[in-house]
Amino acid sequence: MVPTPKPYIIEHRIQTTHNVIVFNLEPQEGDVFDFRPGQFVMVALYGQDGQPLPKAKPYSVCSSPLKKSQLQIAFKIQGEFTNTLAQLKAGDRVGISGPFGVFTYDEKKMTEAVFLAGGIGITPFVSMFRYATGKQLSNSLTLLFANQTPEDIVFLEDLQLLDKQNPHFTAHFVVERPEADWQGETGRVNKAMLEKYCQPVMGKYFFVCGPDGFIIAMTEILKGLSVDAEHIKVEKF
After folding, report:
1. 99 preceded by cis ω (within 30°)?
2. What count of other Cβ atoms lies within 10 Å of the Cβ of residue 230?
3. Dihedral angle of Cα 29, 73, 68, 111, to the nearest 10 degrees
4. From residue 28, how far is each of 42, 45, 92, 224, 229 by CA, in Å?
5. At a CB cut-off of 8 Å and minimum separation 6, what does 149 contact?
6. Which of 95, 1, 7 is nearest to 45 (CA)?
7. 158: alpha, beta or left, given left = phi > 0 and alpha = psi -120 to 50?
8. Closest among 56, 51, 63 to 25, alpha carbons compared
9. Is the pTM of this model over 0.85?
10. What is the pairing mode between strands 169-175 and 52-60?
11. Tens-binned pLDDT, residue by residue, of the chain (237 aa)
12. Is the bond into 52 cis (omega within 30 degrees of 0)?
């Protein structure tokens, strides 16, 4: 049973791509709860009576657990719930309950990790990268982030900044339909790209997050590279 949501105020609303919105949320009272990087929260809307509506949806936390004053989520506009959520503005409130989930980053065990993200599946990884950077971990982190076009890349500037700030984090962007001045990889994430950026794979942990087709393709590639099944962590979006 999901606990009663606590009210969070939308401090800032950012339309980061044509169909993805980011909310910076502040707790109405106290600090943000403790959570592990990669976990998600349940988000509820409020009714006209001022009470949270029973229908709630899960969204990964994008902010770092080190940031206690603010919670960040991002969502893709698709369906009735997100269309209603997208109409909210700064000053409005949502109900937050959590944290939930086991798709988390263990800094002590996962000293070398590769993150394979498809579209909005980047959201739990952003929390992990921000956490590792904020703690100045020496853990090796490699991201391959797949999107349709450069305009679809959520958190592009944030990820580029983290790449500059953290000498142990490297971000690689892959698009299927590049523009003329595109400097990154093109096509789809494939075995050759993993061999180029992630070798040796032995001992590394692999996180995969995105739509079903992306997850199926990535897990097949990882199996082909003889990655131990216990070192593959999957979250469907």
Report:
1. yes
2. 7
3. 150
4. 16, 15, 11, 49, 42
5. 175, 176, 177, 178, 179
6. 95
7. alpha
8. 63
9. yes
10. unpaired
11. 557 899 999 999 999 999 999 999 999 999 999 999 999 999 999 988 888 888 899 999 999 999 999 999 999 999 999 999 999 999 999 999 999 999 999 999 999 999 999 999 999 999 999 999 999 999 999 999 999 999 999 999 999 999 999 999 999 999 999 888 898 899 999 999 999 999 999 999 999 999 999 999 999 999 999 999 999 999 988
12. no
> What residue type is assigned to position 103 of the chain?
F
Structure tokens at 126: 């952003």
Q: Tell me the two tokens of residue 83.
A: 């269309």
